[in-house]
From TrEMBL:
InterPro entries: YibE_F (IPR012507). The chain crosses the membrane at residues 128-145, 152-171, 177-195, 202-223, 249-268, 312-330, 350-371. This is YibE/F family protein. It comes from the Bacteria. The lineage of its organism: Bacteria, Bacillati, Bacillota, Clostridia, Eubacteriales. Keywords: Membrane, Transmembrane, Transmembrane helix.
Amino acid sequence: MFSKEKIKFFICVLSLIFFLNGVTVLADEIDNSKSIDGIKATVTDIITTNEKNISKAENEGGIKEQQVKVLINTGNHKGESIIILNSVDTSMSNDFLLHKGDEILISIEETDGNIVKAYMYEYARDKYLLYLVLGFVVLMILIGGIKGLKSIFTLGVTVLAILKLLPTLLLRGYDPIKTSVVMSVGIIIFTLLVVSGSNRKTVASIIGTSCGVAIAGVIAKIVGDLTKLSGYGTEESQMLMYIPQNIKFDYKGLLFAAILMGALGAIMDISMSIASAMNEIDDANPNISTASLMKAGMSVGHDIMGTMSNTLILAYVGASLQSVILLIAYKVSFIDIINQNIIATEVVRALSGSIGLIASIPITVLASGMLRKREIEKSLDI
C-alpha cells in the first residue's frame, strides 16, 4: 500500500514537525517566564537625545543619552509602555543608539510587581536568525528532497545533543572525554544511518569517520599534554570557575571534547563523500576490480583533502583572528605569538582535526573496498 520510501518520508516529516513544535514551545516558555532579564520590547518613540562630551581629546568621543519609550512584548508586563534611559558611549563599538521600531532586550527591576527601573542591553535578533534557519530548511528540502529532510532532522537532533545534552551531562560532573567520545560515536551512527540507510557505503563511512575522529582525539590529547595546554585559552573557560554549580571541571578534557566536536562534521563529510563516490562508481561499472575501485576512491580523496583541510584550518583561524591581530598590533614576535596558550590551542585544534580528516580517507577507502570484496565473495558462494 505504502512504499518504504513514503513511510520514511512521513516519519521524517512528523519528526521535523515535533522538533520545530518543541523549539517553539521552548521559546514561548522562555518568553513568558518570570525572569526580569531577556524581556523583549519595541521602541515606539524617541523622546529626547542629549550629547555630553566626556573629553576634549579627539578620539575620546562622548556620551549620548536617550529617553526612549518602549512597548514590552513578553513577560509579566506584556503590553505595558515604559520610558527607559539609554546611555551610549560613542567611543565604544558595543553601545547602541536606538531608533523608532527597533526590537530590543531589556532588563527590569521591580518592587511588588511594579517596574522601578529598566534598561536596554541588547538588540533582539532571534526573529531574523529564525528567518535564516527557515531559509536554510526550505533550501535543503527543495534541493535535497527526502534526503534534505533527513539531513535537517539529523542536524536538529545533533544540535540538541551538543547544545543541550552535552552541557547538561558535563554540568552534572560527567567525564568530558568519555562523554564526548560516546556522543560523537552516537552522532556518527545516527546521522549516517538516517541519511543514507543501512548499506555498504554507510558502514564504510561510519568506520572511516569513527577512526578519523579517534585519531584526531588521540593526537590532540598527546600534543596537548606535551605542550602543556591548560584548557584556559578563552575568557569563557576562565569564567567556568565561577559558575553557581561549583563544579571542578577537567579543562583539558573540555578542550579534548571541543576538538572532537569541531573535527566531527568535516571528517563525517569527507568519509561519506568518498564512500558515496565509490558506491556510484561500483554501480556504474559492476565489473571494476576492487583494487581499481579503491584507486578511484583514493583519487577522489586526494581532490577533497586539500579543500577540506583548508576549510577546517580557516575556520579555526577565523575564530582566533582578533587575537592574532591584537598580538601583531603590539608587535609581538612570532615565537611569542605561537607560544601563547590561546594560539597554541587553536593550532593543535586545527592540525589534529586535519590529521584525523586526512587519515579518514585511506581508512574509508579500505573499508569500502573490503566490504565490497566481501559482498562479491558471498555472492559467489551462493
